[in-house]
Amino acid sequence: MRKYIFSIIVALLSLPVAAQQRQPQAKTVLDNAAEAFRKAGGVQAEFAVKTYNNGQLESFSDGLIRLKGEKFLLKTSEATTWFDGTTQWSYMDGSDEVNISNPTQEELRTINPYALLYSYRKGFSYALGKVADFHGKPVFEVILTATDRKQSFSRIVLYVARNTYQPVFISLQQPGAKNRSEITVTAYRTGKKYADTDFVFDKKKFPKAEIIDLR
Q1: Cβ-contact 189, 44 below 8 angstroms
Q2: Which of 36, 58, 84, 92 has CB atoms 3.0–4.6 Å from 53's, for a disulfide?
Q3: Rounded CA gap, 168 and 159, in Å?
Q4: Cβ 33 vs Cβ 42: under 8 Å
Q5: Where does the UniProt annotation place the signal sequence (predicted)?
Q6: What DSSP element (H or E) covers 6?
């Protein structure tokens, strides 16, 4: 589970769910959150991740993610992942290895948590919850329930700040399991300027790394 969570850190888009499964207010919140992210330019978010197994805390970690459109750079204590919009490089600190792949859209939804802002248009019903405050911040709670068994998560709970529509908390429940993860955004900065090369693995900085091309 711990390894899997590091993957999901690194599109809530496509086929609509049935109209009766949608709640207009929840869709408005999700649309506004997606639009706020689109307009934010370069984004840097710091986060903390907790994983639970049968209700018991299993692990805790933190990290940082930088985003520019579909591109991202993800850093955790165990790995660094770069994605330039097509190719992904994952460097594992412990093994000094770099895995290269071309992830699918489905795989990207489980790598980059901010892709969840767009996934609601495919395979989920959604509704507003009752939580109105998170760590002293007014929030909207949106609860997404999978209507497609192929989804990676059966239930997603998203807290969005009422004033900025920035995500502050995401809870992810795996289907058919008593495991869940919680991502809390601890810092969020917008308008950052990033070069495209910031999202590409630089072999010169890791001269001894073993390259494993999985494409």
Answers
A1: yes
A2: 58
A3: 6
A4: no
A5: 1-19
A6: helix 2-9
Q: Are strands 167-173 and 179-192 parallel, antiparallel or unpaired?
A: antiparallel
Q: Are 210 and 203 in contact (CB under 8 A)?
A: no
What tens digit of pLDDT does each residue of 5-61 get?
Answer: 334 443 332 223 333 345 788 888 888 887 887 788 888 989 898 888 888 898 888
Give the pair of three-digit tokens for residue 17: 């769910």
Residue partners of 96: CB distance under 8 A and separation at least 6: 206, 208, 209, 210
Cα 196 from Cα 15, distance rounded (Å)? 31
- Mode of pairing for the β-strands spanning 97-101 and 210-213: parallel
CA distance 21 to 165: 23
Block residue for tokens 């209700």: 55
Predicted structure pTM score: 0.77
pLDDT tens for each residue of 47-84: 898 888 888 898 888 889 898 888 889 888 888 999 99
Q: Which domains does the chain have, with CATH numbers?
A: 23-213 (2.50.20.10)
